[in-house]
Design a protein that fits this description.
single chain, 258 residues, mainly alpha, Rhomboid-like fold, 2 domains, two-stranded antiparallel ribbon, 11 helices
């Protein structure tokens, strides 16, 4: 119990408990698939959408964690980079929204992805061929939300090429459209639905549920006020220490001159 409480406490202090929980879930499934392939494959099959999801309604929201990311060679590196990127953008968006609204946002884009793709396969007459596994759609929506809010942030693509977030958002939207469209051009239009919703939400197009904290009023909890005060107290303390070090340095330099 003490260990569980300690883990829970660390999650909360991170400022992004929902993002970390999603990452942990993906890691657990990927580790199972890597070290216990037979059982891991069964878990992934149980969580992913394979055929009509109406028969397994939980898969509408579980498909993002049905991901066997670990593998030989570059598979592990790609998985590690994906986890780092998920934490980077996820933690920013989660702090913007707060954890409860962020969880609602994640569930919304996840559901939109599964519903729209299922509808696309059904309209094409291939409902039983519906397949959705892995976090690609909700992560694309998450990235577009971040890029919409922070369009001028610079990201080093491949650790070399500086790219503004807004262009990365457009690349992600295009990749989603044409990536899923490679299966069938019609499906690409359905795949882009959660990404389009994410853009509209992040740009405050939905007046009834704005993204911006400036429009979203809520009362700070005592814990939040305490953390905020502790932060400002720490900043003030560090500034005083810096000033004292500067004063002592000048005194020392003056003594050498004499």
């Amino acid at each position: 119990m003490a260990f569980a409480h300690q883990i829970q406490s660390k999650f909360r202090r991170s400022g992004a408990p929902v993002t970390i929980a999603i990452m942990v879930a993906m890691c657990v499934v990927s580790i199972l698939a890597f070290f216990v392939p037979a059982f891991g494959s069964e878990v992934i099959a149980a969580l992913s959408i394979q055929g009509s999801p109406m028969l397994r309604p939980w898969t509408f929201v579980t498909y993002p964690i049905a991901y066997a990311g670990l593998g030989a060679g570059l598979g592990i590196l790609f998985f590690a980079l994906m986890m780092m990127w998920t934490y980077f953008i996820g933690s920013i968006v989660e702090r913007d929204l707060d954890s409860i609204r962020y969880l609602a946002f994640w569930c919304a884009v996840t559901l939109l992805g599964s519903i729209s793709m299922t509808a696309g396969y059904a309209i094409l007459g291939h409902l039983n061929a519906t397949f959705l596994s892995g976090p690609a759609l909700p992560l694309a929506a998450l990235l577009v939300a971040w890029a919409t809010r922070y369009p001028d942030s610079i990201v080093m693509l491949f650790m070399i090429i500086p790219v503004k977030a807004k262009w990365l958002g457009w690349l992600t939207a295009g990749g989603t459209l044409f990536g899923y469209g490679s299966i069938n051009p019609f499906l690409g239009l359905f795949a882009i639905v959660p990404v389009a919703f994410s853009y509209a939400f992040a740009s405050n197009r939905f007046k009834a549920m704005p993204y911006s904290q400036r429009l979203y009023s809520r009362v700070q909890s005592k814990a939040e006020k305490k953390r905020e005060q502790a932060y400002f107290d720490d900043v003030h303390k560090r500034e005083k220490e810096r000033q004292e070090r500067e004063r002592l340095r000048k005194l020392f330099e003056d003594s050498l001159d004499e």
